[in-house]
Design goal:
The protein has helices at residues 2-8, 82-85, 89-100, 106-118, 124-134, 139-151, 158-168, 174-188, 195-206, 209-227, 230-242, 256-267, 288-295, 300-313, 320-335, 347-352, 357-373, 381-399, 403-417, 436-446, 451-469, 549-553, 557-566, 584-593, 600-603, and strands at residues 13-14, 26-35, 39-44, 47-53, 62-69, 75-80, 285-286, 318-319, 471-472, 476-485, 492-502, 508-521, 525-534, 537-543, 570-577. The chain is α+β, with helices and mostly antiparallel strands. It folds into three domains: 1-14 and 468-604, no CATH class; 18-152, Nucleic acid-binding proteins (OB fold (Dihydrolipoamide Acetyltransferase, E2P), Beta Barrel), CATH 2.40.50.140; 209-264 and 310-399, no CATH class. Strand 3 (39-44) and strand 4 form a beta hairpin. This is Flagellar hook-length control protein-like C-terminal domain-containing protein.
Length: 604
């Protein structure tokens, strides 16, 4: 279950449920009992604790307190006594606002009432800051966010508030925010070093399937290079000449050895050794020393492929042309395949063709656009070959999207968005500037103002919300993720919430977990899937208002059951229910607010 393994490796924010006070914080609490030496037992948020008071107080009464100091124990001062507070939270809130000489605004009053009714713990400064935040949004929704921040012990900052509001409030989807920023940047053409890499990332996010289709195209194209007929070989040569990979001269078919020698020349072009690989082409043989030099320029997977070929040949010395063709063919196949980790990358293939990944992807995209617009009779043989292969892989992938392909697309989106950016920040081995989240952060710092900065801030706030909503409670963990899906006709968001206990490795245990999926589709509209896994036994609850969904889905359940069995899971049951009173977004919002609920009560 590769996509699950990728998600369980992510980390949430450690959460602390114990109440810890800081100097200047205020709260209302009841005196449970009075003790000698001006000590009292108080009850705050269901927790009993002991504090030193300046004056004796009446047991059973409620007071407003302010933390004087936390050194050598909790020391409290009384802000308002029981008579001033009364029993009505509104009156208690008025007494607090008056004592603090705060401006009487609807936002301040709403916060003070929450402090009285729900025992919120805030300083005067935090009250004033929170009131400013509430002015920019719906008060009720904003109060829910403030409560969530305090319940989770999150940093009490405007950026955290805005991030949570971007998800919990009535806001645009991630897909819509990405589209808005992409259009604004394309129309205004901003300048600066930050713009090209950001535009490239936004372009890849717009349709990550292009890279997947390109890999599948090259798989078929390379198969023709190796074993295609003469007409296919000629068409392939025509296309490679057009793309600049072969010289524009008449030749019959394509010789892989020509491409191989070109690659080897580029690989050793900077070599200063007297025995450089290039000098061996005239002698026609390659020896052990040159093999060692050659292997050092390859990654571990490529080195193993070459060693396998050497073991099969049974010789440490080989004819250069034949050896190069054999090795090059194997390396091309390896470069055009999707590895087990689901990483979609054209970097290896591009290097073998002596171009950059961006250049290779651009060639494919431009050829796809061009051949789609031109009539068939006007295309060259190479263009016809491309169009035929491209349309074939596109239809095959769209009509029969495999689990491996879906995983590869989600993994690509995770990487482009920077979903694991924070958890890998200290150990990042790749250029983290190539992912969206740090690119947006740099853009926000660089742009003084304007709609581009506003859009970038909104998008960055939304991307930051999901790591904030994810949490780590030691033995249990919750991961919340969001993916914009923009491929094969989809234009929506996929939101995933995964809750469960940890295994011995400190990762979420895929044998015992609960996963919530939320989608808003064009035809089915809102779909919520609640998936429970107990000892690798899977039960599914699918919620949607389409009464025909069960009938439509029934023929697919046998494939689902078989697919789960192949990866070691057993499907127990699948239930279909309407959304009823709560729509999908309400369910999703409640589930993200409460990381400790099982989900059953909310969903049913």
């Amino acid at each position: 279950m590769n996509i699950l393994q990728s998600i369980v490796s992510l980390k949430g924010i450690p959460q602390e449920r114990q109440v810890h006070f800081q100097t200047g914080e205020m709260f209302s609490a009841k005196i449970v009992r009075w003790l000698p030496q001006n000590m009292a037992e108080i009850n705050i948020k269901g927790q009993k604790m002991f504090a030193k008071m300046e004056v004796p107080l009446q047991a059973g009464e409620r007071y407003w307190f302010i933390v004087a100091t936390v050194k050598n124990g909790l020391h409290l001062k009384v802000l308002a006594n029981a008579a001033e507070m009364g029993t009505d939270p509104k009156l208690a809130a008025e007494s607090l606002v008056k004592k603090l000489s705060l401006p009487v605004s609807p936002e301040i009053k709403a916060i003070a009432e929450k402090m009285a009714a729900e025992q919120w713990v805030l300083t005067k400064e935090k009250m004033e800051n929170a009131a400013q935040w509430l002015k920019l949004t719906d008060t009720k929704a904003g109060l829910d966010i403030l409560k969530l921040m305090m319940d989770r012990s999150l940093p009490f900052t405007k950026s955290v508030f805005n991030s949570l509001m971007s998800v919990m409030g009535e806001t645009d989807s991630t897909h819509s925010l990405l589209a808005a920023l992409r259009e604004q940047m394309a129309s205004s053409s901003p300048e600066g070093d930050l713009v090209p890499p950001l535009m490239n990332t936004l372009h890849q996010i717009k349709d990550p399937s292009t890279k997947l289709l390109a890999m599948k195209f090259f798989q078929k194209f390379l198969a023709l290079l190796e074993s295609g007929g003469s007409s296919e070989q000629d068409a392939a040569a025509d296309l490679l000449q057009k793309w600049g990979f072969l010289p524009k001269e008449e030749q019959n078919g394509v010789r892989l050895s020509d491409l191989a020698i070109k690659w080897l020349n580029s690989l050793f072009s900077s070599s200063t050794d007297d025995d450089s690989f290039q000098r061996l082409f005239s002698s026609g043989e390659i020896g052990g020393k040159q093999l060692s030099s050659f292997l050092s320029r390859l990654d571990p997977a490529q080195q193993e492929l070459v060693r396998d070929i050497l073991r099969e040949s049974g010789s440490k010395q080989s004819q250069t042309t034949e050896w190069a063709k054999k090795v090059y063919s194997a390396l091309l196949k390896e470069a055009a395949s999707i590895p087990e980790n689901g990483e979609i990358s054209l970097k290896k293939l591009a290097a073998l063709l002596t171009v950059s990944e961006g250049q290779l992807l651009k060639l494919v995209e431009q050829e796809a656009d061009r051949t789609r617009q031109l009539p068939l009779e006007s295309l060259s043989e190479g263009e016809k070959l491309f169009q035929g292969l491209w349309e074939k892989v596109k239809q095959e992938t769209e009509n029969h999207l495999t689990g491996k392909d879906a995983f590869a697309l989600l993994k690509t989106m995770m990487k482009l968005l920077g979903a694991d950016y924070e958890s890998n920040l200290l150990s990042f081995t790749e250029n983290w500037k190539e992912v969206l989240k740090p690119q947006l952060a740099d853009l926000v710092k660089d742009q003084a103002s304007g709609e581009i900065k506003d859009s970038a801030e909104k998008l960055l706030a939304r991307l930051n919300a999901y790591p904030i909503l994810s949490n780590d409670l030691g033995a249990a963990q919750t991961i919340v993720m969001n993916f914009p899906l923009s491929f094969f006709g989809l234009n929506t968001d996929l939101t995933i919430k995964w809750s469960g206990k940890k295994n011995k490795d400190g990762k979420l245990d895929p044998d015992y977990c609960r996963i919530l999926f939320y989608l808003d589709l064009k035809n089915l509209k809102e779909v919520v899937v609640d998936m429970q896994v107990q000892n690798r036994i899977v039960t599914l609850l699918i919620m949607n208002d389409n009464p025909e969904l069960k009938t439509i889905a029934s023929p697919l359940l046998s494939n689902l059951k078989e697919g789960l069995q192949q990866i070691g899971y057993q499907l127990s049951s699948v239930q279909f229910k309407p959304l009823d009173e709560k729509n999908g977004k309400m369910i999703l919002r409640e589930m993200m607010q409460d990381p400790f609920s099982s989900g059953v009560n909310i969903l049913i």
